[in-house]
Model the fold of this input.
Amino acid sequence: MATHLHLHASSLPTGIVTRNRKSLSLTFISDKNPSFSVRPASAPTLKATVLPSVVAAVSTAVDGAPPVSAAPPKTLPFRVGHGFDLHRLEPGYPLIVGGINIPHDRGCEAHSDGDVLLHCVVDAILGALGLPDIGQIFPDNDPKWKGAPSSLFIKEAVRLMHEAGYEIGNLDATLILQRPKVSPHKEAIRENLCELLGADPTAVNLKAKTHEKVDSLGENRSIAAHTVVLLMRK
Done:
């Protein structure tokens, strides 16, 4: 038996397009093969096939119930994430990169310890998992993160990764700064990053580039990092 509903167009979910904003009549023919006819005040009858999810959404709009949550995403064999971060360099701050304190005449001005590499890695992992970015999970206006070591953020990202059933496949990071030279510290940074991630050393790569004296990065006024991470299903 067909069910006849009389709705105002404003109550319809996204995906049902009308030619005007007046009242509509919708008839659901059956549950197995749902369809409806739309009859605006001054237009011929239109027929269209409706997916079951749209039928459910319309029912929700009629009943006034909260929206039905979407089904969880399909489990993927691997996920890819990209992270980026940039901090201003100012005198009087330590320069911490990958958890390693690097001697320099200035460091990152930030709410936490300003570790641009670890922040970038965290965002890459969170992005691969489809989660909010680091600023939403660890907001910079929360006093408890003031001066916090970024290793805390990495540990939380790794916990979420394992909780979702993934592990590091490989990670490739690029530091961008004009000074100081990173090469004397690169291996220490990479080893610490491997330890924090619980990753095999062969799976973690670190590169460093200058910015050819262009803009704030090239003028030693800021430091940036990019990271790409591949997460593999356990």
